[in-house]
Amino acid sequence: MCRGWADENVTDVVHSGSPQQFGSTQIMISVLVAHSYFLRFDQKQLERAKPYPPLATLQVAGMLRAAGHRVHLFDSMLAQGADEYDRELERAQPTLALFYEDNYNYLSKMCLGRMRQATFEMMARARKHGARVIAAGSDASDAPQEYLAAGADVVLIGEGLGALRMLVARLEAQPSIDTAAWVESVPGIVAIVARELRRSAHASIGPDKEQPALPAWDLVDIDRYRSVWLQAHGYFSLNVAASRGCSFRCSWCAKPIWGNAYLQRTAEEVAQELAFLKERFRPDHIWFADDIFGFRVDWVRRFAAELERLGGRLPFTIQTRADLLSVAITEALREAGCQEVWIGAESGSQRILDSMNKGTTVDEIRTARTRLQERGIRAGFFIQLGYLGEELEDILATRELVEQALPDDIGVSVSYPLPGTKFYETVKQQLRSKTHWEESNDLAMMFEGTYCSEFYRQVRDLLHDQVSIQATRHERPAEFETMRRSIQERWSALLAREQQYRTANRTVRPSVLASSPA
């Protein structure tokens, strides 16, 4: 068993409904931990049917439980709606309702509008029930005043683990403590005291120096997750995080939780966690939620060796950058059991990559794809359309990259202005009433790019179809050729009409259209 995992005695305490004694300390409060991502409110992800437990939320639950608090979890991922939160309120009778978003879930960074609404609904219910309310996450860090107005007593800025520990300890010592005394000198928070907004002097973004606690997996209905996966895909996947944050500085990437820090767990500890999950829950696959997995070849080699020693090897999927996929690290990934790598390709235009401050080249993307393919590792590309200054020739360069590199899968989005980024500061004057997507399939332009949203949606569909037909290239060549011609005809039709989708009085150079292979 992985060192540090809760044993059955701790679990008994967690589910007890009355105060417990630990030496001379009496457990006085109950904490109900929740997050706001409801799968059923996001049609694209509901159809995709690949739900993961809220990893960061579970880590915080584990941290609070290790400190001796009675902890309950409301896992909204597979819930039908906020009404189910009421039942958990009745069961837990919480002194504190903590809304701690899963910071490893990139959709929480996007702050989808429907999820924000769900958070506000649940906070209001918790307040009505008499609980104190703390909110934490990307959206809360970006817009603390809105969360305070909706019912939060305190908003944690960034990861906020140190501040949370202080607040919970004070509440345990004096459940009736007034807000002013409760938040006094606590770093990294925003609160309303005496009707005035108070931001602590040290409210800064950055990770806690200590690694988060191991997730409180026993609080999750794993069988329910397993059922969804097996029914939709025939296998079951669980999530793990080997690191927090990213040290690179792409101009569109928001970092409200960890800033520019990159904190990596030891390879041995991560391998122990996989071995534990394999023995306890029998997943068929692991999704590493890191922004950048591995980073260094020596780390990946130690990870592979420890997995072999523990018998914890499982197929897994990661995210990383093209420029990190050297020959040595791709070989080490293969040895560790890596099945699929998602690369932040973003664009096939070097001009756009440079404008994004991406720090990678189109050649590096192609090379990374080849290296993975040679070792039998699937490759997925994240593609971003509509970045500032992107023109038709840049979109066609992205199409060329997809056609030539032939990734096994792609994810396509449009540039999304997130607070705290250089990109956001550049376009914020163009943002009007729509500042968040309602769900992840929205693909709506929220600033004035070169084209309107409908154009990018059609490009997205064409790029997806280009990738999806590749499986038929060798198995059914006649069918492949028919589908390829159909896609070319759709490209030609879209390009013939591209002027009507433009948002400004700019015209495309005739040479661009004339040179298009479609």
Keywords:
518 residues; alpha/beta; seven-stranded mixed β-sheet; six-stranded parallel β-sheet; 22 helices; globular
Strand tally is 17
Please tell me how large the radius of gyration is.
24 Å
Strand content: 15-25%
Spatial strand arrangement across the major sheet:
4-3-5-6-7-8-9
Question: Structural class given helices, strands, pairing?
Answer: alpha/beta
User: Roughly what percent helix?
Assistant: 40-55%
Give start-end ranges of low-pLDDT stretches. 1-25, 509-514
**Shape by Cα distribution:** globular
Number of helices: 22
Roughly how many Å apart are the termini? Answer: 57 Å
Largest sheet: 7 strands, mixed
- Mean pLDDT over all positions: 90
Account of the 3D structure:
There is one protein chain. This protein is of the alpha/beta class. It is 43% helix and 15% strand. The protein has helices at 8-15, 43-48, 55-66, 83-92, 106-110, 113-128, 138-142, 144-149, 161-173, 179-183, 222-233, 267-281, 297-310, 327-336, 350-355, 362-374, 392-405, 422-427, 453-468, 472-475, 477-496, 510-515; strands spanning 21-22, 25-26, 30-34, 70-74, 96-100, 132-136, 154-156, 189-193, 196-199, 237-240, 243-245, 262-264, 285-288, 316-320, 338-346, 378-385, 409-414. The strands form four sheets. A seven-stranded mixed sheet has the order 4-3-5-6-7-8-9, sandwiched between helices. The protein has a six-stranded parallel sheet with strand order 10-13-14-15-16-17. The radius of gyration is 24 Å and the shape is globular. Residues 1-25 and 509-514 have low confidence and may be disordered.
